[in-house]
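Deviations from the work plan: none for this task. Representative record:
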Amino acid sequence: MTKPIDLNLAAPSAYLFTGEICSRSYRLNKFAFDFKYPAVRDRFTVRARDWTGLVASGGHHFNIIKIAAAVGASHLHVGAHMVGALWDEFKQTLPNRVDLMPQDIGKECQ
Amino acid sequence: MSQIVGGIGIAHTPSMGYQFDRGMQKGFDPKWRQWYDGALPVKAWLRELQATHMVIVYNDHMNYFDLKAYPTFAIGMAERFPQADEGYGLRPFPGMDGDPEFSWPIARSLVHDGFDLTFCQELELDHGVYSWLPYVMDPPWPVKVLPIAVNMLMQPVPTPQRLHQLGVGLRRTILEDGSCRAQHVVHDARRAARGRNHAL
């Protein structure tokens, strides 16, 4: 039996992104944002994939998922990591079935 | 005098967009079929209205704006708004046209109302627009757009009262403006409800 997933608004499940955090973590966020550019993605290897650690360090969700996108993960994978659940467990908790990742579209249509 | 011919509030999620693309190619999953079918009356209604312009109040998701300079209210004054690449490549839809002649009087009026807007001569639209857009319109897009991006990503976000004032101001200026063209206003439902539409 898998352990129940604790969904709540306390860390590490959720973090409030305040102005103070924004100022403190600006360099991390700038670095992550730039992963939206293919040329930047090509320059780095994403190894640890500690999404929760990046968010806990002040990374904004929508910036950290740019790094996740570089390895084919989405905001939902980041969410799963933050609540300490495996992806297959986490997606069972979502109201709508998620069986499609954005990067799969191109492949499916080939 | 311009005329407001309608308004819609609609949720947005990235998955809405991806499921639309797959649905059109391979058929919709039953759960997402509800979404597609549910939007059809809206699509028919918009076609019937024959609006010329659409004011879209939405939020960007760090796909165009970044924390280097994050605007509370940004208004798109360009003639062309490309789709933003969110890191997975562009979806198969064209950009949207703007109409600065239409947009500037509205922007001026909002500033006179006390809104300190950031004027964007370049702006790319992300899934805050493109996830729901193809559900309610077919390309080539039949309207010119005036996008207004509201900060929903970092605290402090504008208050609900402020967003209400924005809606009141938009209505007043659109009705007063002299361009004699019909239009409709799309308000993302999330603006009003501060809801959790990502639980879709």
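The helical segments of chain A are 19-24, 26-33, 38-41, 51-56, 61-70, 75-82, 87-90, 102-108.
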